[in-house]
Design goal:
The complex is a heterodimer.
Chain A: H1 2-28, H2 34-51, H3 54-60, H4 67-86, H5 93-108, H6 113-146, H7 150-186, H8 192-222, H9 227-246, H10 253-268, H11 275-305
Helix pairs in contact in A: 1-2, 1-4, 1-7, 1-8, 2-7, 2-8, 3-7, 4-5, 4-11, 5-7, 5-11, 6-9, 6-10, 7-8, 7-9, 9-10
Chain B: H1 2-7, H2 11-40, H3 43-68, H4 74-104, H5 110-139, H6 143-169, H7 176-208
Helix pairs in contact in B: 2-3, 2-4, 2-5, 3-4, 4-7, 5-6, 5-7, 6-7
Classes of the chains: A mainly alpha, B mainly alpha.
């Protein structure tokens, strides 16, 4: 029961923080109201969580753990997510969960190195892929939009912003939420359908209660981007995460979105990219799974000794 | 829900475009009425220009309400509203010119009147070009040609203004106020073309705003 509660807390946290990935740009651009964004998130996260199982299976197969260690994995992950969010440091929920799962797995000797290696490779490739894709999307769109009347271009951008928001919301259910639910589903604590429904409901609650604040922050920051750049970054992140979801790899929408923004920034000139901020994000990208790994590994070892 | 309303293929946006078209047509009509008034010295027609300015005001308010009620992406809203304000300014300027004329109970000598009529004729042509340039935003055609024409015509007005001033300094006036109002009348008349050019620039900015 405790594991399910902690998994729900993680889902709640994904809802409060990752809502902005899906609709931060459209809400910031004034394309869609916060209420409509939350409604679409609720629908498409549930759909993503129910229809995709590959990521859940991959994360679940990182290590074979008993229910006590699953609880440790979830508590460490949830603790890290809450703590780092409170310190306003960027953290991907699945990096914490996977780092933690791997730590527990190595402590008990059930970790599968091959799966871990392919996940880590996905973490490296996905933001880079989103960056390249954002550049290609931007160039292609710029060409298309220069050939159509401006009012038609405006309508096109509007529809595309909504569609890419929907895609990211779907990915959030199919990838981010799946990773959070994987420990409880793989250990047999909850069947997939029930876990998806409970997880989606918790995520929806997080988005509804706390998502507005994050959306507002992202929206205000993102509106400095023009709609074309915002869309290029977001859609490339959405497409990249969707591709990795189909391949069953847990990747972070946040990092892909950052990759997309950097891509558009590089296209507009290296000076537009804030290198200091990127360094901070990259260091957190390495540190958070490492910290989760060390913490869970240590706790599991102490428990085994006891 | 705003989302569903926006998804209904841009009904609000179409309404805004239609309002802009009415706004531009009002400017066109006001320029034409002003020209006719100047040619015929018809005071009633000058009053009609003032009526048209009030119509323009109403349209601008409607545009503002629809824009800030959620029509178009915010990236375009500011420029669209600025365009509505600028188009309204053209009407304000025409109204000021008409009032100057009425206030002055002006008697323009033939040569001066003929030059003023020429400026008013150019204003009519520029207002037509402006309406067509705005249509170009929707169809994607002819915008560049129209804005170039507007700039060329504005230069013609500049040349005429210099000639009018050369003529004015030779003219005797009976009082300070007659001179002041006559000078204002000429300033306002030639300034119309400047504002039309500003509006054309905004249309060009809109055209590249999402690219």
């Amino acid at each position: 029961m405790l594991s399910e509660i902690v998994a729900s807390i993680i889902a709640f946290s994904i809802g409060s923080n990752n809502t902005s990935n899906a609709f931060g740009v459209p809400v910031g651009c004034g394309v869609i109201s916060f209420r409509s964004a939350i409604l679409l998130i609720g629908i498409f996260v549930t759909l993503g969580s129910l229809t995709q199982r590959k990521v859940l299976e991959t994360v679940g197969s990182i290590a074979k753990l008993n229910s006590t260690l699953i609880l440790v994995v979830l508590v460490v992950s949830a603790g890290m997510i809450v703590l780092l969010n409170w310190r306003k440091l960027p953290i991907s929920s699945h990096q914490a969960i996977i780092g933690s799962m791997a730590g527990a797995g190595f402590a008990v000797g059930t970790a599968k190195f091959g799966i871990l290696a392919s996940i880590i490779m996905s973490w490296v490739i996905s933001p880079a892929g989103a960056m390249v894709l954002a550049i290609l999307v931007y160039i292609a769109l710029e060409r298309v939009l220069s050939r159509v009347p401006v009012f038609f271009a405006e309508r096109l951008i509007y529809v595309m912003l909504i569609l890419s928001g929907i895609l990211v919301a779907y990915n959030t259910g199919a990838n981010e939420l799946a990773a959070a639910l994987a420990p409880v589903v793989s250990s047999g604590l909850l069947p997939h359908f029930e876990a998806s429904v409970v997880g989606s409901a918790s995520l929806f609650a997080g988005a509804l209660l706390l998502g507005g604040r994050v959306i507002e922050t992202v929206g205000k920051n993102i509106t400095t981007l023009d709609p074309l750049s915002g869309f290029s970054a977001q859609s490339s992140a959405g497409l990249t995460v969707f591709l990795f979801t189909v391949l069953g790899m847990p990747v972070s929408t946040t990092y892909c979105l950052i990759g997309g923004i950097v891509g558009v920034g590089l296209l507009k000139g290296v000076n537009t990219v804030r290198v200091k901020l990127i360094k901070k994000i990259v260091s957190m990208w390495v540190l958070s799974p490492a910290l989760a790994f060390i913490l869970t590994y240590s706790i599991a070892k102490v428990m085994l000794l006891g | 829900m705003r989302f569903l309303r926006r998804f209904s293929f841009g009904r609000t946006e179409r309404e805004v475009v239609e309002l802009f078209r009415r706004h531009m047509n009002t400017v066109k009509l006001a320029c034409e009425v002003f020209l006719k008034a100047l040619e015929t010295d018809d005071k009633g027609l000058f009053n009609q220009v003032c009526e048209l300015e009030r119509t323009g005001d109403r349209i601008r308010r409607e545009i503002a309400l629809k824009l800030y009620g959620g029509a178009f992406l915010p990236a375009m809203r500011g420029t669209l509203y600025k365009l509505a304000e600028t188009v309204d300014e053209i009407l304000d300027m025409l109204e000021d010119t008409a009032i100057d004329y009425l206030r002055l109970n002006l008697h323009l000598d033939e040569e001066l009147r003929e030059m003023c009529v020429r400026v008013a004729k150019i204003n009519v042509k520029m207002s037509r070009d402006l309406a067509e340039a705005f249509d170009g935003l929707k169809s994607g055609e002819g915008l560049e040609n129209r804005t170039v024409k507007i700039r060329t015509r504005e230069k013609e007005v500049d040349i005429l203004r210099n000639r009018i001033y050369e003529k004015l300094v030779e003219r005797e006036v009976s009082s300070y106020w007659e001179g002041k109002i006559l000078s204002d009348f000429i300033d306002h008349l030639v300034y119309v073309s400047d504002i039309i050019e500003d509006a054309a620039d905004l249309i060009q900015i809109l055209n590249v705003s999402l690219r």
